[in-house]
Amino acid sequence: xxxxxxxxxxxxxxxxxxxxxxxxxxxxxxxxxxxxxxxxxxxxxxxxxxxxxxxxxxxxxxxxxxxxxxxxxxxxxxxxxxxxxxxxxxxxxxxxxxxxxxxxxxxxxxxxxxxxxxxxxxxxxxxxxxxxxxxxxxxxxxxxxxxxxxxxxxxxxxxxxxxxxxxxxxxxxxxxxxxxxxxxxxxxxxxxxxxxxxxxxxxxxxxxxxxxxxxxxxxxxxxxxxxxxxxxxxxxxxxxxxxxxxxxxxxxxxxxxxxxxxxxxxxxxxxxxxxxxxxxxxxxxxxxxxxxxxxxxxxxxxxxxxxxxxxxxxxxxxxxxxxxxxxxxxxxxxxxxxxxxxxxxxxxxxxxxxxxxxxxxxxxxxxxxxxxxxxxxxxxxxxxxxxxxxxxxxxxxxxxxxxxxxxxxxxxxxxxxxxxxxxxxxxxxxxxxxxxxxxxxxxxxxxxxxxxxxxx
Amino acid sequence: xxxxxxxxxxxxxxxxxxxxxxxxxxxxxxxxxxxxxxxxxxxxxxxxxxxxxxxxxxxxxxxxxxxxxxxxxxxxxxxxxxxxxxxxxxxxxxxxxxxxxxxxxxxxxxxxxxxxxxxxxxxxxxxxxxxxxxxxxxxxxxxxxxxxxxxxxxxxxxxxxxxxxxxxxxxxxxxxxxxxxxxxxxxxxxxxxxxxxxxxxxxxxxxxxxxxxxxxxxxxxxxxxxxxxxxxxxxxxxxxxxxxxxxxxxxxxxxxxxxxxxxxxxxxxxxxxxxxxxxxxxxxxxxxxxxxxxxxxxxxxxxxxxxxxxxxxxxxxxxxxxxxxxxxxxxxxxxxxxxxxxxxxxxxxxxxxxxxxxxxxxxxxxxxxxxxxxxxxxxxxxxxxxxxxxxxxxxxxxxxxxxxxxxxxxxxxxxxxxxxxxxxxxxxxxxxxxxxxxxxxxxxxxxxxxxxxxxxxxxxxxxxxxxxxxxxxxxxxxxxxxxxxxxxxxxxxxxxxxxxxxxxxxxxxxxxxxxxxxxxxxxxxxxxxxxxxxxxxxxxxxxxxxxxxxxxxxxxxxxxxxxxxxxxxxxxxxxxxxx
Lengths: 456, 579
Hints:
The complex is a heterodimer of chains A (456) and B (579). In chain A, 77% of the residues lie in helices and 0% in strands. Chain A has 456 residues and is mainly alpha-helical. The radius of gyration of chain A is 30 Å and the shape is flat. With 579 residues, chain B is an alpha+beta fold. Chain B folds into 3 domains: 63-150, no CATH class; 154-315, no CATH class; 352-575, MetI-like fold (Orthogonal Bundle), CATH 1.10.3720. Chain B has helices at 17-59, 81-92, 98-106, 111-123, 140-146, 181-215, 222-253, 320-331, 342-345, 358-389, 394-406, 411-425, 433-457, 461-469, 474-503, 506-510, 531-540, 545-575; strands spanning 64-74, 129-137, 153-156, 162-167, 170-175, 260-261, 268-273, 276-283, 287-294, 304-309, 335-339. In chain B, a hairpin with a 2-residue loop joins strand 7 (268-273) and strand 8. In chain B, helix 10 packs antiparallel against helix 15 and helix 10 (358-389) crosses helix 17. The longest helix of chain B has 43 residues, at 17-59.
C-alpha cells in the first residue's frame, strides 16, 4: 500500500513540475524575459518542495511509527504470562508478526495470536494514516507553492538553496551510516553485556553461546570469545605471511625493475586478482586448496584437517596480495626521485638503493598498507565461512580447524536459532570487529597522512 | 723507520681481486632481489591461473546435459507427470526385478523429466498418445557417470571364443584364451593390497605392544594388570590380523583355475554378449561366473566383449545395474548429449541437474538496480558538495574521515547494520532486493564518492571561472559545466563500485538472502537471492553435481565483472580528458 503512496507522490512531483512551469509562463503573459527566473526553475522549485514534503512525511512517519509499533506490540503481550525475559518477549512479538503475515512461526498460541491480531489492526491504521498525511502534505505544499508563482518570484535562487541543502544531506549520509553502524551494534552489545559480564566475553575460553538457550538465558561461561580471537589471529597471521612478502617483492619489482611492457602485463593481472569476489576465493579454498593441502600433508605424514586454518589463511593471503602490492607500489613510487638519484650518485646499486634508501623512506606507507591488509583479513568473511571450521577450537596449530569472529557472526545470524536470541552475541562480535578494524584503519590512515606530509 | 714511505699498492681498491669480489657480491644481491620479485609475481600469477583453471575446468561440464529416449504413454489431459515417467521407466526395462533394481531404474531419470513434460503441456506442445518416443532428462549421478567422474569404462575385444552355459541364476563363461587374466590380476592386486594393509595394522599392534611392555616396569597394582591385559589384547589382535593376511596371501598364490570372488570394493567387470550384459562375480584366468543384469537373448556362442570400470561399486552412486543399463542404451544410441540451456533458464533447485541461475540473475539485477539508483545520485551529490560547496571546517573534515573509514569497514558489519536498521527498524522485507540493494548502496557509497571527488577535482578551475564570469550561479556552474566534464571519471568509479557490489556476499547473508528460493523475483520486495549467494549455497551443497554448477555460476559472475570492468576501462580511455 505504501509503495502506491510513494508512486502517487512521484506522479504528483512530475505533475507539479509541469503545472508550475505552465503557470510561470502564463503569469508572464508571453513576455518570458520579464520573469526573474526561467519557467523551468519555477517548475523545479515546486516539484522539489512537493517531493521533499511527500517523501519526508512518508519516511519520517515510517520511522516513528515503526518505533511506536514495536512498543505497542510488546504492550500487547498478555500480562497473564507473568514476567518474561527480553529474549522471550522478542520471540513472542516476532512470532506474532509472522502469524499476521501468514508466515511460519516457531510456535502458535493465544498470546502470539493476540500480538498478531494487534499487529494487523495497528498496521492497517498506520498505513491509512500515513497515506493521508503524506498525500495531504504533498498537496498542501503544492497549493502553497503554485500560488506563490509571480513575475518577480526568485524561483532560481530558492531552487538552488534547496539543491545545496540536498547536496549537504547527501554528504551527511556518510555520517548517518557511521552513526547507524555504531548505534545498531552498540545497542545490542549493551543489552548483551547487561546479561553477561564483559570479562567473561573477552577472556573466556569456551565459546558455545547457543547451548542451553532454551532455558531463556545464556550461560556466561559459554560465551568466551578467546577461541574466536585466536582463530582470527591465526588465519590473519598465515594470510599476512603469504601476502606481505609476495606483495612487497612484487611492488619492489614493479616499481624498480620491471620494464614498461612487463608492468603492462603484471599490473592488470594483479587487478584481476583484486577484482575476484571473495566467494570465489572461498570456493577455491574449499574445493581445491584444502583437499590439496590435506593430501599433501597425508603424503608426508602430517594430519591436516580438511578445514584447516592453513587453507583459509593461504587463500586469504592470495586475496590480499594485490592489496599490499598496489598500496606499497604507490608509496614506493611516491618516494622522491631525488632520493634515488642521490643514492645512485654515491655509487649504490639498485638493490642497495632500494634496501637502504627507498624502503626506509617508504616504511610508514608500507606499514600502513600491511595494517590495512590485516584489517581486511580480520574482517574477511566468505573465505573463512567456506573454508575454515565452525567449532571453536583454541589451538595454534595451523593444520587444525579453527573458527573466526566473522564465521561465528554468520553462523549465529543464518542459523536456526531465533534471531532475537542470536543477535546478542552476533552483534557483540560485530561491534568488536568494527572497533578492531577501525583502530587499524585509523592508525594506517594517520601513518599515510604523516608520510605524505613529510614529502609533499 | 719514519722516513720510509710505503709504496702505493700496485692495484687500486677499486680494481683489485677483493674489489671484484665485493662488486660481484653486490651485483649478486641485486640479482637476488630481482629474482625475489619475479618469484613473487610468478606465485601470484600461479595462484590466479590455478584459481581460474579450477573454475573453468569444472564449469565447462555444464555446457551439456544428457537425455535418454524411451517410449512413454501420455494422455491428453495428464497431470501426474512423475507417474508417466515412472511408468515409462518401468516399461523400458521390464526385466528389472526386485525393489532395489526398480529403484535403480527410477534413479536413472531426473525429476526434471516430469517438469519438462509439464512445461510442454502448459505451452501446448506436449505430444500425446501411447508409445511416443520421448527424451527424458537423466539424473545428476548418471550425468556425472557419463562424464567419466565415476571412473572410466574400458571395452576390450577378447582374444578367445566364449562359451556360455546357464546355471540357475548365474551364467558360466568359458573362454578359449586367458581373457579374464586382467580381471584376475586386479582381484589379486586388490587382495594383495588388503593383505598388506592387514600386515601394517598388525605391525602397529606390535609397536603398541612394545611401548606398553617398556612401560611395564614402572607400573604397579591395578594399572599393571590393566596394561598386561591390554598387551594381551594387542597380541590377540595381531595374531588375528596376520592370520587374515596369510589367508589372503594363500588365495593369491593358489593356482589351478580356482575362481576368485569379486567384491563391490573391487573394479567392476562386465561381459557384453547376445544382446545382454553380464556382471562378473567370480573369475579365473579362462573362466568366470556372471550374473545377467540385462538378460541375454540366448547362450549361443558369438561376438562378445569385456568391459571394466575401474571405480569400485561402493565408491560411486551409480550402481552396476545402472551402469549396465546406461551402457546398453549408449550402445543403442538412445542417450544424447544436448546443449544445456536449462542452466540459464531455470532457478535454484534441490536437484542439481535442473538447478539454474536464472532466479539469481534476476535477483542480482533488481538488487543492482536499487543499489545504483541510491548510491549513484547520493554519491555524486555528496562528492559535489565536498568538492564544490563545503566550507573547509571541522564538519567537512569529519565527513571526510567518515567516508575514508567507511571504505574500510568489513562488509559483514554493513550486513549487521542492514539487519538491525533496515529489517528490524524500518521493516524492509527480509531477503528482498530492496534490503540487499540498500546495504550494498551504503557499501558502495564511499567508492563512488572517492572516485567522483577525484574526477571533479581534475576539472580545471578555468572552466569554473569562465562560467562564473559569464554570470552563471555556483549551482549552474557545477551542474552545467563541471559535472558533465567529470562524468566519465564518475561513471568509471561507479561501475567499479557496482562491480564490487555485484560480487559481494557476506552482508547479504545477514539479511536473509541465503534462503532457498526457487521463485523468480518479480519486484524489489519479493524474496530473492543473488548470483554470489547462489554460488555460496551451491558450494555448500553436498551433491557432487553442484560442483560444476557452482563453477559455472562463478564463470557467469566473473563474466559480468569482466564486462563491467572493460566498460570502465573503455570509458576511462575514450572520454577521460587530461588537462
